[in-house]
Predict the 3D structure of the following.
Amino acid sequence: MAIGYVSDFSGMEHFAVIQSIVRAARNGDREGLERQISRLRDRLEKGGAVKEAAALRRLEGAETEAQDLVPSKVEISRAMVSGETLTRDVNPPMDRETGAQLCTIDFGSAELAVPIYGDAMGLTVDGLLQEWGNEAALRRVGVEPTRSLLIYGPPGSGKTVTAHYIAARLRLPLVTARIDGLISSFLGTTARNIANLFDFANRYACILLLDEFDALAKLRDDAQEIGEIKRVVNSLLQNLDRRRERGITIAITNHDRLLDPAVWRRFEAQMRIGEPEAVARERMIARFLLPIQAEPSTVRIFSYCLAGRSGADIERLCANVKRHLALGGDAHDGPGLFRALSAVLARAPAQAGAPARILATDPEAFVSLIANDADIGLKQTEIGEATGYGQSRISDLKKARRHAGLMEQAHG
Ligand SMILES: Nc1ncnc2c1ncn2[C@@H]1O[C@H](COP(=O)(O)OP(=O)(O)OP(=O)(O)O)[C@@H](O)[C@H]1O
Ligand SMILES: [Mg+2]
């Protein structure tokens, strides 16, 4: 795969690495393959073949993206999910008084993208998928696979997306209920709704998703009849316990602290998704800017401005940048993206951090900021490539420390 890019240089010089690449590829050794490819890239870079090294990096990026879109199926054992096959002509259960559906049924879509996580989260999700795919191996050592998962974290962090992703990997339909949809104004009906929902989920092979689970906690303040609320919570807990033999349940909440410890304990696995860290943020930006292929230096600048933002925020912002580019007629390159980012941030500077605010108000001061900030890790040439400023202008801005006053304002 890499051969086309090195043939212009001394092919012999890199032959040993190419050989290792071929060997790793033939052996299906993914890790080895990636290690060898990055070795080749380093050598190309050191040898001055900067463009070729960059091309290789883009190829890798493209490959990771492509992989992201084709989740392989995890073969879940039948013992994990009993029940009839849920088909599109099965009607979801309804609230008898209002006729409202108690859940929605999602059969998954082929285009579902893999959520982007930091390392720890990615390992947790993969670990669960592995458990579900190797249930027999677990049983041989006397442990049961996890069957209930609580996902918590701030809005827009990818909780719902994660539940859909898990269902897609297992090729199971996702039966989604909102607790507030189950709560009937006819108090006596709520417990019956919960029972009907669980009966439905237990009857079919599916994953049950209880989204916005914290409505359960709110229930305690809203309803007047203490006895009735207790009954509802208890019926939910009993249903959760009974479902354990039947299938997988995922619950989602924004406000982990609102949940009763008794509820919390019901879930064998708990997973927090927060705002993405730098690496995850960069992967999100690169993905959400597609089909525009942003250079790493541009992605780094976006990431620098979007620290602390949620995945949903980053997605929205990238979409706005693309809108701006598409309608404004600016080039779809580093400088074009830089100007579009500045314009988009200027429109919505409200909760932005200091770098984003500086870019929104004064792009030259921003260039001065990143030229002086070792943390962003961009060489002056890369800053030029990503912003369109000439090298001497960047040097001047760097020396003038144009950002200093604005930083003080931002922190003051
Ligand atoms: N980790 C992530 N990976 C990929 N996309 C993400 C991620 N986090 C958020 N997104 C994007 O943001 C959008 C919102 O994500 P999602 O609905 O899963 O958030 P949530 O955590 O369920 O939020 P809420 O608490 O508001 O329901 C998704 O459509 C997705 O495109
Ligand atoms: Mg959600």
